[in-house]
Amino acid sequence: MTQAVRRAAAVALTSAALAVLPSLPARADAIRAQEWGLASIHAQEAWQTTKGEGVTVAVLDTGVDGNHPDLAGQVLPTKDLIGFGAGPGDAAWAEHGTGMASVIAGHGHGDGHGDGVLGVAPGAKILPVRVILEDSDPQRRRARDQKAGALADGIRWAADHGADVINMSLGDDSESAHPDPREDAAIQYALSKGIPVVASAGNGGEKDNHVSYPAAYPGVIAATAVTHLGSRASFSTRHWYATVSAPGYDIFMADHGTGYVSGWGTSPAAAFVSGAIALIRSAHRDLSPAQIRQLLTSTAQQPPKGGRNDDFGAGLVDPAAALKAAENLKPTPQKPAPAGYAHRYFGPGPTTDTADATPTNWLPWTAGGIGLALVAAAFAIWRART
């Protein structure tokens, strides 16, 4: 098996990053009243400014069921980069992707949209890009072997087809996890077009805490997970690339069909962050990915001592505070994205050598100076003799 295929296998195995409970009835008291995550990030305050209108969030996942009552009218046609496996109506179809889409842009249903799941940016559109299959899909192994480049292709496709934000609630944090040049290049391509890219930090916090990709690629906004108490979710991976944290425990989401699931993981945490970015982009279209990242980190709630740590990044995301801070922010021109790390990939994190970090070697300069002096002396002696 080639390295690329092993990489794809790991992504397929770990991309779900979500544990689900049985489908639940669509009752306001069972769903809406338990969406603690919206209150924790001050979503209602942010909605006084915008609900994400005019923004498209690409959901790179297992597909999205656009017929779910809480997503009807919000979901654009699916781009399927797998091309086989389960289809609409099947048990293994779009469970994970539908859940993530509802966290981002669910608008509820019923009278006054008072029932069902309400997302962070209920006015945003969802662009589904199918790049993985559900764990329960019988064709999953085939997808690993034959569609190793689907994620990289999906990032580029989304960037070229109207995405304002790219959400990747997936990742590889296995022992064999490693950076893939195609994925890295695709992310840099999206960033160079002014599109923020979000990924889940990983669910290895109770295991070996391996670095997870795509979260660890340069420029990606990586989301860790917190509980309703504000503490780090025990499963949430802790690493240098953590950007901000978001709700990721006991999260109610839409399921394919008309059902609901309650789950956990850094997958919904990433969806919360993508929803927050959708709100910012709706109100401030011209901000660059770097500016949006800075807004998220500088306005995060409960910042750790020192400004950040590997558990929470800069703290709990707060789109209301970010929107307020953006009011007087002048957009900067989008600069070309940095070109990944050429030689050393993501060990303890990217480092910058300072002037005094590497001592200067004076020996070559000293030897050269002495040599020039000797030549000059010899020339002077020759002139004197002649």
- Measured by DSSP, the beta-strand proportion falls in 5-15%
Helix content, binned percent: 25-40%
- What's the N-to-C terminus distance? 78 Å
* Uncertain parts: 1-17, 19-23, 339-366
Give a quick account of the main beta sheet: strands, pairing sense, barrel closure. Answer: 7 strands, parallel
Indicate the CATH class: Alpha Beta
Note the topology.
Elements: H1 3-14, E1 19-20, H2 36-40, H3 43-47, E2 56-61, E3 79-80, H4 95-105, E4 107-109, E5 115-118, E6 125-130, H5 140-146, H6 150-160, E7 165-168, H7 181-192, E8 197-200, E9 221-226, E10 242-247, E11 251-254, E12 260-264, H8 266-283, H9 289-298, H10 319-326, H11 363-385
Parallel strand pairs: 2-6, 2-7, 3-6, 7-8, 8-9, 9-10
Antiparallel strand pairs: 1-12, 4-5, 11-12
Helix pairs in contact: 1-5, 4-8, 6-7, 8-10
Notes on the structure:
This protein is an alpha/beta fold and 386 residues long. It has a single domain (3-326), classed as Peptidase S8/S53 domain (Rossmann fold, 3-Layer(aba) Sandwich), CATH 3.40.50.200. The chain contains eleven helices and twelve strands. The protein has helices at 3-14, 36-40, 43-47, 95-105, 140-146, 150-160, 181-192, 266-283, 289-298, 319-326, 363-385, and strands at residues 19-20, 56-61, 79-80, 107-109, 115-118, 125-130, 165-168, 197-200, 221-226, 242-247, 251-254, 260-264. The strands form three sheets. The protein has a seven-stranded parallel β-sheet, with helices on both faces. Strands 1-12-11 form a three-stranded antiparallel β-sheet, covered by helices on one side. Helix 1 packs antiparallel against helix 5 (140-146), helix 4 runs parallel beside helix 8 and helix 6 runs parallel beside helix 7. The termini are far apart. Mean pLDDT is 85; it is low at 1-17, 19-23 and 339-366. This is Type VII secretion-associated serine protease. The chain crosses the membrane at residues 362-382. Residues 1-28 form the signal peptide.
